[in-house]
Every structure is written in C-alpha cells, then in structure tokens.
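Minimal example, chain plus dihydroflavine-adenine dinucleotide.
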Amino acid sequence: METVETDVLVVGSGPAGAATALALSTYGVPNVMVTRYGSLADTPRAHITNQRTMEVLRDLGVEDQVTAQATPQPLMGNTVFCTSLAGEELGRLRSWGNDPLVQAAHELASPSRMCDMPQHLMEPVLVNAAVSRGTALRFHTEYLSHEQSDDGVTALVEDRLRGDTYRVRARYLVGADGGRSRVVENAGLPTVGRMGVAGSLNIVFEADLTHLTAHRPSTLYWVLAPGATVGGIGAGLVRCVRPWTEWMVVWGYDLEAGPPDLTEEFARSVVHRLLGDDTIPVRITSTSAWTVNHLYAETYADRRVLCAGDAVHRHPPSNGLGSNTSIQDAYNLAWKLKLVLDGTAAPALLDTYSAERAPVGRQIVERANRSIGETAPVFEALGVLATSDTEQMWRNVDARKAATPEGAKQRQGLREAIAAKVYEFNAHGVEMNQRYVSDAIVPDGTPDPGFGRDPELYHQPSTRPGAKLPHAWVVRGRERLSTLDLGGHGRFTLFTGIGGDCWEEAAGAARKALGIELVTVSIGPGREYEDPYGDWARLREIGDCGALLTRPDNHIGFRHPEMSPHAGELLIGALRKILGHG
Ligand code: FDA
C-alpha cells in the first residue's frame, strides 16, 4: 500500500483544519490536509467573527481578505426581537460591539474589527492561503483510522474518488474533523456532556428583504412567536447571510419525532411564517437538519494526536463561538508543533495545548448552552409559556400594550429580559479574556487580580503571564502599528523600553543559547517605537526598563517589572520552561 510522508497530517478543512494548515504553512511546516468531501463548506454555517479571531487572521496575513468580503460590524448591530419580520417588533438589543459604550471598548481593545464572515466565504480564504503557502490539500479523502508509534502517527485514509486506501505517515496528526469526529473517537479522548440536546433546521434562501431589514440592520432577527420554542436554539431565527438578499432561517424540531421531511414546500412555509408575509418571493437554496450539542473533551490530545475545533467542543451557535474558538485552537497549536518539530522545543510543549485550550472549550460550551436557556425569560415576559392555547398566547403578547399596572409590569419585564440577552450578543469578555495557565506560562508571583467588572461582558487587558498582549497603537516614524503587530509572526518578542538595555542583551544571549527566533521591541522617546498617546505606558503594568515576553501567539509568557542584573538568566530560564526544557 502506498505511504505518503509529511510532518503534520491535518484531518478536516473546516475553520479548525484550514487555520491549522494555514498557520503551519505560514511557519514553514510541511503539512497535508485531507477532507472527506469534494468541496469546502457549501452553506453559510458559522459567521460571527470576533476581534480575537480577526487578530489571529491579521497575524496570519489574511485579515484584509476577510474584511473585504465580510459584512461590516455596523450592519450587524441591532438584534431584533419580533413576532415576524413583517409583524410587530418587540424590542431590539444593540449587539456585537454596536452599543456606543461597548463600541469604545472594542476600539480600545484591538486593532481589528469584528465582522460577519459566513463560513462558506471564510473557508476559501483560509484554504487558498494555506495552499499557496505550501499545504498539500486532498479533497475526497476520508480519514479512517490511525496508529501511533514513538516517532509518528500512521493514518489510513480512503481516496473516495478512486475507492482505494493509502497511508499517511506523519510526525503528528491534527484531528479537526468536526462535531462527529472519528479522530476523537479513535483516540479515545474523554468527553463530558451529550450530543443531541435539541433539534434544529437550517433553511438557506434568497429573498429581497431590504424593506424589512435595512432600517434596522442586523445579523440576527429573532422571531418569538407561539411554536417558536420547539427544540433547537430557543426561538425562530432569520439570519442575514448577505445584506439584504441572502438569508438563513433556523427553526426547531422535536428530536423525539425526528426531523421533518425537508421538502421545498415545507421549507418555504417555515420561511414565510417567520417573514410574516407570504407574498415575498423566496428561493430556497438548501436545507439541513442538525442537533444542538452540549459536549466538550476534557483533554485534546493523545500523544501525537491533537484535536481542535468542534471535534473537541460541540455547542449551539449562540454567542457565535464555533468557528472563532476553532481558529483560535489552531493558532495556539501551530507554533507549538513548529517548535517541537524543528527541535527547538521539547515534546512537553505540546502538553500545554490541551492545558490551555480545554478550559476555553469547556467555558464556551457552557456559555453557548446557557444562552439558549436565557431566551426563556423573553418568552415568559410575553406570556407565551403560560398557556398552550395559541389564541391566548397572542392575547398575552398584546397585553403589554395595556394602560394598566399589569401592562407596565409586563413591558418592564420584557425590557429586562431582552437586556439580559447581552450575555449572548455583546459578551466582549467571553471573546477576549482568555488567560492561560500551563507550563508554557511563567508565573511572575503576582496575585491574580481577578476582574474588576463582569468577565463575560467586559474585556480587561492585562500583561500578567497567561494573558493576551494588550493592544496599544504605537508609531515608527509615520507608521502606526499595534503592539500585536510587533509580536506574533511565529516568533517570540521581548518588549522593553528606556533603561531596558539589560533585557535587549539578555535576548541576544537567549537567541544564541536556545536557537530561537526572538525579536526585541523597545518603546519610548527616541527608541524605534514611540508611544505618543501614552496608551502602552498605561497598559503594560511594568516599568520603562522592565520586560514582557510574548509567545508566537501573542500571549504573555513571562514578565519582569524592572531591570535586573540577572536578566539573561531570568529570560533564558523562562524560555527554557516555555519550550518544555526545564
Ligand atoms: P467543521 O465541521 O467545520 O469541519 C470539519 C471538517 O472535517 C470538514 O472539512 C469535513 O469535511 C472534515 N471531515 C469530517 N470527517 C472527516 C473524515 N473522517 N475524514 C476527512 N475529513 C473529515 N455555527 C454557527 O455559529 N452558526 C450556525 O448557524 C451554524 N450552522 C451550522 C450548520 C451546519 C450544517 C453545521 C455542520 C455546523 C454549523 N455551525 C454553525 C457550526 C460551525 O460550523 C462549527 O462550529 C465550525 O465549523 C467548527 O469548525 P471545525 O473546523 O471544527 O469543524
């Protein structure tokens, strides 16, 4: 049987696999990506692309391509709650960074803007860039099984066009094969939770809905009508794919009864029900049934097999975390694979992948599932859960218009229930506050300051080891750069300032001793980079002459508040620990 050799075999070309291949190829690591089907995602699927993901894509050099195709943040902004698109509006929530107060936080947190990039547009950007940088992509190729030895993994794959099988021999295998991951199953990774919590239908369609949507631009229009609570994501949803002519409806079905027959007639009837106007011409382009899952893997790796994306965290689309977390998994993993493969780091560095990402996966699975439950109070406030009689339900919805104390109470209850959905539609902290604790983070002995405000809603920058490098605009001559642009690029970066010469010397010694790529960045008047707004000085939490070491994924690995006569020893010791040597 034929055997193909590579350094990393990536199974799956969804956001997790494509981003892994892209990062690996960007870092010069030979890789083969196999995918079972003959095409990339052919339906919109995941779409909300948060700031942290955009930062990752910026570092991987594809941010501009994504921004060029995505629906921009201002058009994502009003989550609308209504009885149908043409029917009564029940309320709106400023979402996805479009509340003026949150807008400022987004502006301050990152050089990158959130956007709406449907998966069928995102995957080609990632995959084209990966292939153009060296990834060998094989469509129609299904992973079947694998075996591990001390120095590699041999996977058996099937060429579905030819109908024969061959082996791929790799040093590592990345299982990014989605929510029904065979790699996870074969690797025996322990999981918590369950699949199939509720049933949902996706109906993709074309219709010109400009007259119903352009005056209240949004990515999501929630239809809270009697019957909308059946299964699925907690309500009927009309989601914008391309403003304002391409759409997707998400509608629940009863899991016990099984998915309905997805005929065109059925699909059109659901769409028209949510639009509230049967006269609108609708062209159905695809339908599919899926289940809401509530499951995460406790560990993401079994020796040389490492898993990412939906393979290890399976949850509903609430909060829009699916592809975001998948791309971020890839970014965490790729630099570690590179350094282990080129011998710079010990294999122990790869253990930190699971240690750092599994807690994030667990958190987002819990958050996304909780968000579904948090829709119930909106239905409660409308009175549609209080009766099974549909006519009574509509009377209850109407009761909020009454000039009575009960009416006022209902109006207030509805406002509060909609406002509480901020945890789904404006959870900046969930998106940006990831802090790692692992052997690839060197604690600096400072106590965890915790969070001043709700960590799910508010981003709190920090330079405490484990946190992501805070964004600040600095300048070099006429050029404006984010601190995040100075780090990343697959290498370590040491940030210091005036009086930090000992750290620059230490970096030189570390480069020599460890053979790593480590750049130094000095920020201050008369240095290569200046901090004209004083933003960096406010955020860095160290003195001018202190040091911050960022890893290739722009997370802080080590910091020291001031100059030190032992700078070389401290920095080399920290890097050795991060690299798994000590
Ligand atoms: P993803 O499922 O995207 O990719 C898996 C990849 O593995 C695919 O390329 C597949 O071909 C490949 N593969 C699987 N088994 C293989 C094998 N044995 N051998 C080789 N290749 C194999 N999210 C959201 O936020 N909003 C939404 O509306 C939706 N809607 C939605 C609809 C449908 C139909 C699906 C399947 C998923 C969604 N999602 C979603 C979820 C979202 O798409 C998901 O979170 C991300 O795509 C996860 O990215 P991954 O790369 O991990 O898996």
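The mean pLDDT is 96. Residues 11-17, 34-37, 45-46, 119, 142-143, 176-179, 182, 202, 288, 290, 309-311, 317, 320, 322-323, 326 surround dihydroflavine-adenine dinucleotide (CB under 6 Å).
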